[in-house]
Write a structure and sequence with these properties.
This protein is mostly helical. It contains 11 helices and 2 strands, in the order E-E-H-H-H-H-H-H-H-H-H-H-H.
């Protein structure tokens, strides 16, 4: 099935065919063995870490359900990276090492489709978390009435549909898929920057006037927003999103700089090494949840305590 054409010599080859061509991947055995060892470890840690986080989120009750759903969706995508995408790339690299080019072609195409889908869902979810934090600040007491579990569920389902449709363009043209990802990434990045800029400006305004509000309010009045708790939630989300950008940005740059014709072997190496950095994000997120979200950390401790008690 035809994908975007790239030229190695006089013959036209599709991008995936080029990555599974014996004359192209000759001499990368050491790198593939090294990457395989790293990704086996990352696959195991992503599976164990995100499974534990999903159990903890299921038990945790203090987080607002829509916010918990967003973190749960992010954990699901990270779990899928560990049990689907990384094993598929391991299969692809093993097929290259063993010269099984038929397996290489189909495993690469399936891994690329799965990876693009999960990457898009993760990016959209991270963006939704930033918007969720902004709405919590701007809406105040109306936040729980406006941001409901039903609306958030519909949004998350929309993320999956949009991502699957976008990633399925890889069947016809990888070039379209790549530009689709770039456009979505740019829009999400602009949204995240706007949301947190607005949050920081609003927090600064609240910090200046909040003490006056506390002094002047009547005893029967409620404070519309717990700024200390909100600020902690914002910083937790910022850590998750900052780590996401740090892990995904090198791969995005590597893809953007990959020439459309005459791909050098260095581009092959760069894409695979930066893709491994993307997979690292799926193993880091559970650690960030435990470190930065006290409710999740407590639920994880309780889950581990119960597991150890049962095993003993």
């Amino acid at each position: 099935m035809a994908l975007t054409n790239f030229t190695e010599d006089e013959n036209q080859k599709t991008f995936i065919e080029l990555f599974c061509a014996v004359e192209f991947v000759r001499g990368v055995d050491t790198e593939l063995i090294f990457l395989s060892a790293i990704n086996i470890f990352l696959s195991i840690t992503a599976f164990l870490g995100n499974t534990l986080i999903l159990f903890a989120l299921h038990k945790e009750t203090s987080l607002h359900p829509p916010s918990k759903l967003l973190y749960r969706n992010l954990a699901i995508t990270d779990l899928c990276v560990g049990i689907i995408v990384e094993p598929l790339y391991l299969t692809n690299w093993t097929s290259v090492l063993k010269g099984r080019w038929d397996i290489c072609y189909y495993s690469f195409r399936t891994a690329a489709f799965s990876g693009y889908t999960l990457c898009a869902v993760s990016l959209l979810t991270v963006t939704a978390i930033s918007v969720d934090r902004l709405l919590a600040l701007l809406l105040g007491l109306r936040y729980r009435q406006v941001v409901t579990l039903r609306r958030t569920s519909i949004t998350v389902i929309g993320f999956w549909i949009l991502s699957i449709v976008g990633a399925s363009t890889i069947i016809w043209n990888l070039f379209i898929t790549t530009w689709y990802q770039h456009i979505v990434a740019a829009l999400c990045l602009v949204t995240i920057i706007f949301a947190y800029t607005k949050i920081l400006c609003t927090l600064r305004h609240h910090q200046i006037h909040f003490q006056n509000y506390v002094d002047q309010r009547q005893p029967s009045q409620e404070i519309p927003l717990n700024l200390a708790r909100y600020r902690k939630a914002v910083y937790s989300a910022l850590w998750v999103q900052g780590t996401f950008v740090a892990c995904y940005l090198p791969f995005t740059i590597a893809v953007a700089l990959t020439p459309q014709r005459g791909i050098p072997i260095s581009a092959y190496r760069a894409r695979h090494f930066t893709a491994t950095l993307v997979y690292l994000n799926s193993s880091l997120n559970p650690l960030l949840y435990c470190w930065k979200i006290s409710e999740v950390r407590q639920a994880v401790k309780e889950t581990l305590r119960q597991l150890f008690c049962r095993s003993s």
